[in-house]
Amino acid sequence: MILKNIFCLAAASILLSACTNTQNSASENLDSAVTPLFVTEPVQFDTDDPAIWINPTDSSKSLVIGTDKDENGGLYVYDLKGKIIAGKTIKGLKRPNNVDVAYGLIVNGKPTDVAVTTERMTHKLRIFSLPDMRPIDNGGIPVFEGETGEMQRDLMGIAMYTSPTGQIYAIVGRKTGPTDGTYLWQYLLEDDGTGQLKATVKRKFGKYSGKKEIESIAVDNELGYIYYSDEQVGVRKYYADPSKGNEGLALFATTGFMEDNEGISIYKTGDSTGYILVSDQAANHFQVFSREGTKQNPHQHELITSIPTSTNNSDGSDIYSGALNDDFKHGIFVAMSDDKTYQYYRWEDIAGKLLKINK
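Structure (tokenized):
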């Protein structure tokens, strides 16, 4: 019995060592969770996904927009200290799930920044001009029209893509969908001639494993790629430009996650360099992958490190890679936590000694 116990303890030690090595592969050994500089005032119901809007004339007046996911939910708008801006916050949305922003969409002949959220219970996109948060969508734009089954129209993730020629697209996901490579739909957003927006389907693409769902979607505008989390499988990568086709370019972040791979955000250290952060939701970690891939293969995104944070069950996140104010001189990382808040991190605190910091 003593010998058997010794063997069991040795096996357990080997297993623990293997897990630790996987979690901290190619990284410094972080002893404790990184803590945020600010935690936002709470929403009423359930935080899910944030987006950062950068004020083009004064970055210190930039905003964070976050979803409050409920049948009587909303879009909460925060300043850079996490305080709710009541005059900009939108209430009464029907379970808004994810949100993203885009810059310079032509509305009424003028470049207009927009916040776009998925309203799950109505199967519509809701679109608001920034920074005033005025609706410009005629009460909502229906998407996934013609699909059968309620969950095949229940909106989840969204990411905005701006093409080199200035066209702005919304890439939209849903609660469930086909596994034949048409899970995501990509819509071109345009003024409908009345100062309101319309959306036109330009392609249907994206593999789906069928294991759980696809919620988190992120776009790298500069490199022209779309990333999305096929939960419990990995992160899939495609071209963002519809004219480049629907070939899958990569599947990474496939191992080392406690349960779901979730929120995706990108820190850019140059035109083509930086980091892709993917939430290891149940572990309260963010796994960090190379943005540029390897010299041999730009679509081979290798694990650099895994960073523990103070978030709990983080679903969505966003990053801005530049200076904002004295609090965020090298960038800001915003991540939701399941206590109805969003947490603001200084990039240098996330980066530690291993990752690069924009000066």
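The domain at 39-351 is CATH 2.120.10.30 (Neuraminidase). The first strand starts at residue 38 and ends at 39.
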